[in-house]
Structure to design on (692 residues):
C-alpha cells in the first residue's frame, strides 16, 4: 500500500504544479474586458496599420473605396477569429466587401470558415464578415505558409463597387478574438523572434524619451510572447506515466499474490 | 509522510519559479526616440467659381469650407506644420492659360499661427478655374524637405479644367519622387466624374477619397486627416534594385521603397550568417488602372542561381497592393573549424504579373515596399510534437496497458523466483 500512497502523492503534486501553470499559458481574450474600446481609426496601408489588441473593438469612419488596415498580435496555440461589420449608407448600389488577413510577412492567410467576402445588395444597411484563421503554430518549415506567432494584418475593403458609391461614408467595426487550442496544437521547435515586422531594426529603448515611437508593429499579446516551452502535453504524458506505474503495481499484485511469505527474509 | 512533504513543497516552488521566469521574458518596449522631423500638412482648397453653389446644408460650398477650416485650425495638434494653398482664387478671366496657372500659397507650411491663418482664410472669394494638377505640383514643393510624414489634403468641387495635364499622373509623379507623400482628396457634392478623378489621385499615392455632402462631415474628415499626419510612421528608405543579382544593392534590416515597371525584375542582396534567419516581405501597389488579375513572386536565390525558397501571391479584383513574403533560416555550420563564419549572400528577386490596358502609362514603375529583417535562427523541430510528448486518451490507455502488462510479468517473475528459492 505504501507504493500506492507515494504514487498518489506524486500525482497530486504534479496536478498542483501543473494547474497554475496551465492557467498561465492560456490567457482568455475576454480578460481585457468585453467593452474595451479600441482605436477609432484605421490605417491605410501595411505601414500605417492601426494596432488592435485581441478582445478590443476597433471602430473607424471611412469612405467606400478605402482600404482599411488593422494589425493584431496572435500567439502560438491561438486560433484567431476576425469579425468585421460595415454599416453602409442608406442608398447605394450592390457592393462586395471583403476582409483579408495577412501574417507578419504580408503573406495572405487562408480562412478556415467564415464569410470572408459578401455582397450587399442595393439598400442593405450592413455587411458582416468573418474569417476564422488556422491555429497559430510555434514553428513551421520555411517553405510552409502556416500561421506563426507574430503580427497579423487585417485588410477590409470594397472589392467591387459602382463609381457613384465611391467616397460614400461608411462605419466599420473590427473585433478579433481567439480560441485557445492548447496542447493539441503544440509543436516542437520555436522561432527566435515572433514574426513581427521590423523587429530586427527597432530603435534602442530609451527610458528618458516617452514620445510615441515609429515602429511597424509594437503590440504584444497580453502576457507577452510564449516561450513555447509549456503545453498540456507535459500533464498528459506525466499523468500517463503515473497511471502506467499504478497499473504496473496492480498487475504485480495480481500475479505475485498477497505479499511475500512471512518467513522469507528481506532481500531474497 | 511528513518527511516526504518537504521535497514536494520544494518541487512546487521550483516549478512555480521556473514557469514565472519563462512566462515573463522581456518587458514591452516603451518610449523610443523617433528622430523624425515635424509632420507637414498642406491643405489645398479649390476656390473656383463653382464654390458659390449653395448646396451644403443650405449654405454655399465656400462658406462651408471656411467654417470647416476654422474648426480644423483650432483643433490642429501643436506638432503639425500646416500650410494652406488655394487654386483658382485670383484669376477671374477667360484665358485658359492664365487660369491654369492660378494657384497661390495662402499660408506657408510652418508652425501654425491660428489667428493669422484664419484671417487669411476669411479673405477667400470663389473666383476662377480649377487647376488641380499645377496646384498639386506646387503643394508638393511646399512640403519639400525634412523626413517627417507629408500629406496633401485636396478639397475640390469640380474636376480639373486644365487638361491635358492629368492630375492623376501628376500625383503619381509626385509619389515617384520618393518623398513619402500622401494625397487625400475630398469631393464637395461630387458627380461621378469628379469622384473618379479624385479617387484616382488618392489611389496613386495611397491616400483616401471621401465625398462630402454636409459641413460637419468636412470638418471631421479634415480633422482626422490632420491628426493622422501627426501619428509617427516609419519612413522607408528609397533604394534601387538591379536587373540581376550581381549588381544588386546590399540591404540591411529595415524598410525600403523602390519602383518596379511592368514586366521588370528587381534584385536585392542580403548578407546572412550561419544560424541567422532572413525574413523579407514585399508589397507592390497598384497605383493606376491595372487589369483585374495580378500576382507577385518573391524568390530567395543563392549567388549560383539555386532557388532556396519563394513566396507568391495572386489575386483578382480591385486592390491597392499585392504582397508576399518569405523566410530563410540558414542552418548552423556543422563543423566550425573555419573560425569566423562567412556570410552567405542571398539574392532576393521580385517580379510581378500586373498588366495594364494600352494607354495606361507604364512609367514611373509601380511602387514597391520591401521589409528586410535578419534575426537569430529558429530552434528547429526534431519531432512534430512538442518535445516528443504525447497527449490524449489513446496515449493514456497505451501507457496503462503497458504498465499493467509489465506489472503482471514482474509479479509472475518474482513468484517464480520465490518458488525456485523454496524448492532449493
Amino acid at each position: 500500500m505504501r507504493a500506492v500512497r507515494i504514487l498518489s502523492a506524486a500525482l497530486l503534486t504534479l496536478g498542483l504544479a501543473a494547474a497554475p501553470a496551465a492557467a498561465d499559458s492560456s490567457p482568455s481574450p475576454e480578460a481585457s474586458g468585453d467593452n474595451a474600446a479600441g482605436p477609432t481609426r484605421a490605417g491605410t496601408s501595411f505601414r500605417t496599420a492601426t494596432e488592435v489588441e485581441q478582445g478590443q473593438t476597433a471602430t473607424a469612419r471611412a469612405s467606400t473605396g478605402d482600404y482599411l488596415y488593422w494589425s493584431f498580435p496572435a500567439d502560438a496555440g491561438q486560433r484567431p477569429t476576425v469579425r468585421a461589420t460595415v454599416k453602409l449608407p442608406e442608398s447605394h448600389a450592390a457592393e462586395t466587401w471583403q476582409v483579408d488577413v495577412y501574417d507578419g510577412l504580408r503573406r495572405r492567410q487562408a480562412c478556415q470558415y467564415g464569410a470572408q467576402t459578401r455582397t450587399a445588395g442595393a439598400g442593405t444597411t450592413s455587411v458582416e464578415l468573418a474569417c476564422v484563421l488556422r491555429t497559430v503554430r510555434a514553428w513551421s518549415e520555411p517553405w510552409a505558409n502556416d500561421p506563426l506567432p507574430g503580427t497579423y494584418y487585417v485588410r477590409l475593403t470594397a472589392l467591387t463597387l459602382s463609381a457613384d458609391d465611391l467616397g460614400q461614408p461608411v462605419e466599420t467595426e473590427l473585433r478579433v478574438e481567439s480560441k485557445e487550442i492548447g496542447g493539441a496544437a503544440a509543436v516542437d521547435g520555436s522561432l527566435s523572434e515572433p514574426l513581427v515586422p521590423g523587429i530586427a531594426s527597432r530603435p534602442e529603448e530609451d527610458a528618458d524619451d516617452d514620445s510615441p515611437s515609429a515602429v511597424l508593429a509594437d503590440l504584444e499579446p497580453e502576457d507577452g510572447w510564449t516561450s513555447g516551452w509549456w503545453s498540456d502535453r507535459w500533464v498528459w504524458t506525466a499523468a500517463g506515466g503515473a497511471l502506467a506505474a499504478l497499473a504496473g503495481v496492480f498487475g504485480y499484485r495480481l500475479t505475485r499474490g498477497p505479499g511475500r511469505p512471512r518467513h522469507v527474509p528481506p532481500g531474497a | 509522510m511528513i518527511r516526504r512533504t518537504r521535497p514536494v513543497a520544494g518541487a512546487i516552488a521550483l516549478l512555480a519559479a521556473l514557469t514565472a521566469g519563462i512566462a515573463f521574458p522581456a518587458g514591452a518596449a516603451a518610449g523610443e526616440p523617433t528622430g523624425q522631423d515635424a509632420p507637414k500638412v498642406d491643405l489645398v482648397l479649390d476656390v473656383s467659381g463653382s464654390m458659390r453653389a449653395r448646396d451644403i446644408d443650405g449654405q454655399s460650398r465656400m462658406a462651408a469650407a471656411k467654417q470647416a477650416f476654422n474648426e480644423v485650425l483650432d483643433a490642429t495638434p501643436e506638432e503639425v506644420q500646416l500650410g494652406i494653398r488655394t487654386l483658382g482664387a485670383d484669376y477671374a478671366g477667360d484665358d485658359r492659360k492664365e487660369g491654369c496657372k492660378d494657384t497661390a500659397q495662402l499660408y506657408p507650411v510652418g508652425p501654425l499661427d491660428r489667428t493669422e491663418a484664419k484671417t487669411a482664410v476669411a479673405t477667400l472669394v470663389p473666383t476662377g478655374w480649377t487647376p488641380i494638377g499645377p496646384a498639386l505640383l506646387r503643394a508638393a514643393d511646399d512640403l519639400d524637405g525634412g523626413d517627417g510624414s507629408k500629406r496633401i489634403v485636396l478639397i475640390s468641387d469640380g474636376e480639373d479644367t486644365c487638361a491635358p495635364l492629368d492630375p492623376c499622373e501628376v500625383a503619381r509623379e509626385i509619389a515617384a519622387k520618393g518623398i513619402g507623400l500622401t494625397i487625400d482628396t475630398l469631393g464637395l457634392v461630387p458627380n461621378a466624374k469628379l469622384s473618379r478623378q479624385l479617387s484616382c489621385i488618392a489611389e496613386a499615392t495611397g491616400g483616401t477619397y471621401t465625398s462630402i455632402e454636409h459641413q460637419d462631415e468636412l470638418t471631421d474628415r479634415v480633422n482626422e486627416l490632420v491628426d493622422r499626419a501627426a501619428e509617427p510612421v516609419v519612413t522607408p528608405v528609397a533604394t534601387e534594385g538591379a536587373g540581376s543579382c550581381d549588381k544588386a544593392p546590399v540591404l540591411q534590416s529595415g524598410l525600403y521603397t523602390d519602383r518596379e515597371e511592368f514586366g521588370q525584375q528587381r534584385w536585392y542582396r542580403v548578407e546572412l550568417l550561419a544560424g541567422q534567419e532572413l525574413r523579407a516581405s514585399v508589397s507592390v501597389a497598384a497605383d493606376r488602372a491595372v487589369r483585374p488579375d495580378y500576382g507577385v513572386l518573391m524568390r530567395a536565390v543563392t549567388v549560383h542561381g539555386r532557388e532556396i525558397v519563394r513566396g507568391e501571391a495572386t489575386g483578382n479584383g480591385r486592390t491597392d497592393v499585392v504582397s508576399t513574403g518569405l523566410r530563410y533560416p540558414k542552418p548552423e555550420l556543422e563543423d566550425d573549424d573555419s573560425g569566423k563564419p562567412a556570410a552567405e549572400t542571398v539574392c532576393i528577386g521580385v517580379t510581378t504579373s500586373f498588366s495594364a490596358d494600352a494607354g495606361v502609362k507604364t512609367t514611373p514603375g509601380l511602387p514597391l515596399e520591401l521589409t528586410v529583417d535578419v534575426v537569430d535562427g529558429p530552434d528547429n523541430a526534431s519531432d512534430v510534437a512538442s518535445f516528443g510528448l504525447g497527449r490524449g486518451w489513446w496515449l493514456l490507455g497505451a501507457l496503462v496497458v503497458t504498465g499493467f502488462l509489465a506489472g503482471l510479468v514482474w509479479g509472475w517473475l518474482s513468484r517464480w523466483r520465490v518458488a525456485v528459492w523454496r524448492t532449493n
